[in-house]
Amino acid sequence: MIWIAFITFVLLMLALDLGVFHRKAHVVSVKEALAWSAVWFALGTGFAVFVYFAYDGQWFGLGSVADAVDGLPNDGATATEKYLTGYVVEKSLSVDNIFVIAMVFGFFSVPPLYQHRVLFWGILGALVMRGAMIALGAKLIAEFHWVLYLFAVFLILTAVKMLFLKTEQTDPNKNLVVRMTRRLFPVTARFHGEHFFVRAGAPASRESEVPGAPQAPDEVVEAARPGRLLLTPLALALVMVETTDVIFAVDSIPAIFAITSDPFLVFTSNVFAILGLRSLYFALAGMVKKFRYLKVSLGLVLMVVGVKMLLAEWLKLALGKHFNLYLLTVVLLILAAGVAASILVERRRMNTE
Predict the structure, then answer these.
(1) Checking DSSP bridges between strand 197-199 and strand 229-231, what pairing results, if any?
(2) Crossing angle for the helix pair 30-56 and 263-275, nearest 10 degrees?
(3) Do the Cβ atoms of 189 and 215 come closer than 8 Å?
(4) At what angle do helices 277-284 and 263-275 cross, to 10 degrees?
(5) Stated pTM of the model
């Protein structure tokens, strides 16, 4: 019952978002994005109140089963700590996704007018995929506890990669999924409004004249018989957004399972973190390059979470059952330090120019 109620609430919010507040395509301003970011943040953190009372009173059976991570059933306080820690970790890791989304939109020259639509459907698909991955992960952990240690090692290796290895931006046209999509479906050379699909022979939109917009080979479009269904560049951008979310989920899903194996806490913290990604993108898209130390902070967060997963039993004995509260504090301090260092270095650079 609780799962149906929560999913219904999420679908209702998404319907209001696209069907009411963003019914007409428009360029999302930074002011509007910040307002929506505040709304999603308030919903995400406010949900912790429900978590506290639901687990404290064991509503719908919540908190009646021991958490595989620490071997203890979650009461109101511990469930709230785990939910908030998971929410902050997932929210911070989703920020890294913004860098890639900005690169994808830039490569495909997606007009700002239609970026919200791509992100809306991309995030809807991400919710479905992450739900399936969380269900699979919870089942694996319930049957094979040692999977947690594999997750821990994976997180630490990922952190080392983020901290010490330089990752170069790749050409989306070389992405395997995009190449397969182009091979299976003909792609139009220009944008056709906010449509992902269009019939051959349909007039292009004015946004198709954006300088540097990706051009599909002319022979692909010309060879398509009139009336044939074609993909637009907007669809390719959506494919890339979905693909990158799957890649990032490989990091974020083990990270949340390092904090709790409770499926409801894992799913709800993930959902609220993802729901705020669109507005966060429009609020930060123009500033992502200024946060030069954010990637370092995210790497350290993954490192801390991975080590915590390996040493969960020892930490529980040393710090008590509320050791997740200390983890939440450490994560917040690392993120704050990364943002502060980025701002200070950026100000110093501007003053010297």
Answers:
(1) antiparallel
(2) 170
(3) yes
(4) 40
(5) 0.74
Contacts of 144 (CB under 8 A, 6+ apart): none
pLDDT single digits (tens) 245-259: 777 777 678 888 888
DSSP for 179-202, written as a single string: HHHHHHS-B-SS--TT-SEEETTP
Encode burial over 303-312: b for 16+ CB neighbours within 10 A, e otherwise.
bbbbbbbbeb
Q: What is the DSSP letter of 39?
A: H
Query: What is the four-CA torsion angle of 128, 178, 244, 249, rounded to 10 degrees?
Result: 50
Reported as a single tens digit per residue, the pLDDT across 161-191 is: 777 766 555 566 666 777 787 788 887 877 7
CA–CA dist 202, 226 (Å, integer): 9
Buried b (16+ CB within 10 A) or exposed e, 322-349: ebbbbbbebbeebbeebeebbeeebeee
79-131 tens-digit pLDDT = 999 999 989 888 887 776 777 777 778 777 788 888 888 888 888 888 888 88
Q: Checking phi first, is residue 62 left (phi over 0); if not, alpha (psi -120 to 50) or beta?
A: beta
Tokens of 352: 């010297």
Encode pLDDT of 51-60 as tens digits: 999 999 999 8
Round to whole Å and give the CA distance between 202 and 204.
Answer: 6
Q: Are 48 and 81 in contact (CB under 8 A)?
A: no
Q: Which two tokens stand for residue 123?
A: 């995030």
Tell me the two tokens of residue 97. Answer: 């996704």
Q: Following DSSP, what letter does each residue of 233-258 receive, concatenated?
A: HHHHHHHHHHHHHHHHHHHHHHHHHT
